[in-house]
Write a structure and sequence with these properties.
The chain is α+β, with helices and mostly antiparallel strands. Strands 2-1-4-3 form a 4-stranded antiparallel β-sheet, with no helix packed on it. A two-stranded antiparallel sheet has the order 5-6. Helix 1 runs antiparallel to helix 3, helix 2 crosses helix 3 and helix 3 runs antiparallel to helix 5. It is elongated and about 80 Å long.
């Protein structure tokens, strides 16, 4: 026998049971014949006074779930992109890649303090694990820190604007199309994001 469990909001929860039904933890459970069938998704159907009806708010529930999941995905993508870091051209023209995970961020804060105290060189390392730490000039270290800081702030700003855009969407199909790197419509770009794009030459697709 199939069962209907009705939660406190009258949402149907289908499982299996034997007998005519019962009450468990204050929640009504009724049994139905084995051939009882619905295209069941939690929240889609309500069971009220012995009748099964489609939840009039179901589409809003689905949209809200998709919106929340997509925002969480984009939040994680933003963090991973920041951690990945970027290539930076140093004063002598060489290009090195620098990551910016949470430990890097803490270490760079310490390096920044050394520079403020007048250090002429500081020890740091590029992303390549086969390359040892080396000394960087104050000019190079300042550029590394400022570039990585701008990288982090840019992506945080982009994510916040992207979240606003996702919350404005009204269909699951629109939400499913969103990936990190999606080019925002101009009306959803904040003043700060546009300033980063113009002043720092950054673009989400770069």
């Amino acid at each position: 026998m199939k069962q209907i469990v009705v939660d406190n909001n009258n949402n149907m929860i289908i499982g299996y049971c034997e007998g005519d039904g019962y009450v468990e933890n204050g929640i009504e459970v009724e049994c139905f014949p084995e051939d009882f069938s619905y295209n069941f998704e939690y929240g889609k159907y309500l069971y009220i006074d012995g009748e099964i009806i489609i939840n009039p708010d179901y589409n809003l529930i689905v949209l809200s779930n998709y919106t929340t999941n997509k925002i969480n995905q984009m939040d994680n993508a933003c963090k991973q992109t920041i951690y990945k870091g970027l290539d930076i051209t140093l004063e002598d023209g060489t290009i090195e890649h620098f990551t910016l995970d949470e430990q890097d961020q803490l270490n760079l804060s310490g390096i920044g303090l050394k520079l403020l105290m007048g250090a002429e060189t500081v020890a740091w390392h590029e992303d390549d694990e086969t390359v040892p730490c080396r000394f960087y000039s104050a000019a190079d270290a300042t550029k590394i820190i400022s570039t990585l800081t701008a990288w982090k702030e840019y992506h945080i700003t982009y994510f916040r604007d992207l979240r606003i855009y996702i919350n404005s969407l009204t269909t699951v199909e629109e939400i499913e199309l969103i990936e990190y790197g999606f080019v925002l419509p101009e009306e959803f770009k904040s003043e700060v994001l546009m300033a980063y794009e113009q002043q720092l030459g950054m673009n989400i697709n770069e």
